[in-house]
UniProtKB/TrEMBL annotation:
Keyword terms of this UniProt record: Methyltransferase, Restriction system, S-adenosyl-L-methionine, Transferase
Catalytic activity: a 2'-deoxyadenosine in DNA + S-adenosyl-L-methionine = an N(6)-methyl-2'-deoxyadenosine in DNA + S-adenosyl-L-homocysteine + H(+)
N6 adenine-specific DNA methyltransferase N-terminal domain ranges (all copies): 23-159
Domain DNA methylase adenine-specific span(s) in chain numbering: 173-497
Biological-process GO terms, alphabetical: DNA restriction-modification system; methylation
Organism of this sequence: Actinomadura coerulea
Enzyme's top EC category: transferase
Official protein name in the record: site-specific DNA-methyltransferase (adenine-specific)
Pfam families named among the record's database cross-references: HsdM_N (PF12161), N6_Mtase (PF02384)
Similarity section: Belongs to the N(4)/N(6)-methyltransferase family.
EC number: 2.1.1.72
InterPro entries reported in the protein's UniProt record: D12N6_MeTrfase_N (IPR022749), DNA_methylase_A-5 (IPR003356), DNA_methylase_N6_adenine_CS (IPR002052), SAM-dependent_MTases_sf (IPR029063), T1MK-like_N_sf (IPR038333), Type-I_RE_MTase_Subunit (IPR052916)
Gene Ontology molecular-function annotations: DNA binding; N-methyltransferase activity; site-specific DNA-methyltransferase (adenine-specific) activity
Length: 535
């Protein structure tokens, strides 16, 4: 193969599909094609599997065109083109999956109305898995089952044929699909309600974990990785700090088969060569990375899991045997057991973990504090998780609080951050942490710890009433080892109110009467609507 020249820009877009927003809209409509015939969990697998197949086909075609252009530019006779175009190494070397004949999207789309499209798609999934070892056992083969409406499936194929993953906002096909895939995971998580929390962690929460841990380089592990969102955010962090994808090595495990497949596809789309094991497995029953010592661990385990595999003599229970009815402290001890010499971890937990004393949980929490493993506690605002109303917090563990590598010596200290008043409501039920919120939380931690990023930004740490406080272990002992940040940071000073009492009373009275009037208007409207109901 002649030396490569600069690749041409992405393929031209199809008419009418010019922006990411339009592409997402088209793809989400594709989900609706199947919404009526199956539940949210099923059509998630259907649609994401098809989206993935369309992506690998588009990326393959894009690479094929690039190779052809390079051959023409280098004056290679056309009679020799085929041997280069069919060289698998030319694709794999560029991180593009090889798509064999018969599995390429245009061939499938041409037979969408044949009545055998489900069988053809299952065959294409098989063929792609056989020719790409990293995808073995990952892609869904569910399109030719009896409960699949083949007519709807053919319509879905037609709709996806209008969506191209190249040529959007100057992004590569991989970046576009990565963005689309994340968008879909979020939409599906909302559609599935409570069950959606099993595979999706809100993006702003993941950002807080990643921005505090700063995983520039090393082994990153998630023992309950869901759809792999922690890894994707860690990769974004690395790339945004001028690092390379292979600066981090990813290890994960997931107990749910379908979610494990989603995670494998998610990593493949983002070009992350992670080790999620060769199969799904329960972390407590079968640790698939028994010898792993990680530099960074990010995790959002299921809250308050009551049905879990528990062995009382498990060596991971170094700080006490967790209760059978709640796995919170089992997850935390598993994570600590996986930390390397200077490893650190960020874990999403239910708020109860900060203060519970039932069934030995208080003793385990005490042992974690007394062993100086808890670096930071963050109380999160409510409604960040659409899938659950359980209030949540973040635990940060570290094996090293010393002044190693120029850090501030924080041995015997724990940072408490109360972020309960932060965030912005997206709608009536869902709140997000803004980038400024995430930066404020992360900066407080880095300033406290004296990290290189804090020194570079000129950040110095000071306690801030109502927001952050650095407590020594004696203070935590005095609080009976309860780790609720609100106990330590205190209440913020109230802003001085210059409004005269009479004026305030008049203003509030007017506001109240306005609300009364609106309430009356809404009541009348609802009564009329009810009267018009024809039942």
């Amino acid at each position: 193969m002649p030396p490569r020249k600069k690749a041409p820009a992405g393929q031209a877009e199809l008419p009418g599909v010019s922006t990411m927003a339009e592409l997402k809209a088209i793809l989400w409509r594709s989900a609706d094609k199947l919404r009526g015939s199956m539940d949210a969990a099923q059509y998630k697998d259907f649609v994401l599997g098809l989206v993935f197949l369309k992506y690998v086909s588009d990326a393959f075609a894009e690479r094929r065109d690039q190779i052809r252009d390079e051959l023409v530019a280098d004056g290679v006779p056309e009679s020799r083109h085929e041997s280069f175009l069919d060289d698998k190494d030319e694709y794999e070397g560029e991180g593009v999956f090889w798509v064999p004949e018969g599995a390429r999207w245009p061939e499938l789309a041409a037979q969408a109305k044949s009545g055998a499209i489900g069988e053809l798609i299952d065959g294409a999934m098989d063929a792609v898995m056989k020719t790409n070892r990293s995808l073995a056992g990952v892609l869904p083969r569910i399109y030719n089952q009896n409960n699949v409406d083949q007519r709807r499936l053919s319509e879905l194929v037609d709709l996806l044929s209008d969506a191209r993953f190249t040529g959007h906002d100057g992004k590569s096909a991989r970046d576009v699909l990565g963005e689309v895939y994340e968008y879909f995971l979020e939409k599906f998580a909302r559609a599935e309600g409570k069950r959606g929390g099993e595979f999706y962690t809100p993006a702003s929460v993941v950002k807080v974990l990643v921005e505090i841990l700063e995983p520039y380089k090393g082994r990153v592990y998630d023992p309950c990785c869901g759809s792999g969102g922690m890894f994707v955010q860690a990769e974004k962090f690395v790339l945004s700090h001028r690092g390379r994808r292979d600066d981090i090595a990813v290890y994960g495990q997931e107990a749910n088969e379908r979610t494990w497949r989603l995670a494998k596809m998610n990593l493949a789309i983002h070009g992350i060569g992670g080790d999620l094991s060769t199969k799904w497995a329960d972390t407590f029953y079968e640790d698939r990375h028994p010898d792993l010592k990680a530099d960074y661990i990010l995790a959002n385990p299921p809250f308050n899991m009551s049905d879990w595999y528990r062995r009382s003599d498990d060596p991971r229970w170094r700080f006490g045997t967790p209760p059978a009815g709640n796995a919170n402290f089992a997850w935390m001890q598993h994570i600590i057991s996986k930390l390397g010499t200077r490893g650190s971890a960020g874990v999403v937990m239910a708020n109860g973990s900060m203060s519970s004393k039932q069934s030995g949980e208080g003793d385990i929490r005490t042992a974690l504090v007394e062993n100086d493993l808890v670096a930071c506690m963050v109380a999160l605002p409510s409604q960040l998780f659409r899938t659950t109303q359980i209030p949540a917090c973040l635990w940060f563990f570290t094996k090293d609080k010393s002044a190693h590598a120029g850090h501030s010596d924080r041995q015997g200290q724990t940072l408490f951050i109360d972020a309960r008043n932060m965030g912005t409501m997206l709608d009536r039920t869902e709140r997000v942490l803004t980038d400024d919120d995430v930066a404020k939380i992360a900066n407080a931690y880095h300033a406290w710890r004296g990290t290189p990023s804090a020194r570079e930004a000129g950040l110095t740490y000071e306690d801030e009433l109502g927001f952050c406080y650095s407590a020594v272990t004696d203070e935590i002992r005095a609080a009976d080892h309860i780790l609720t940040p609100g106990r330590y940071v205190g209440a913020p000073e109230a802003e001085e109110d210059h409004e005269p009492i009479a004026d305030k009373l008049d203003r509030l009275t007017k506001e109240l009467f306005t609300h009364f009037e609106e309430s009356t208007r809404l009541e009348q409207t609802i009564r009329k609507q009810l009267e018009n109901l024809d039942v």
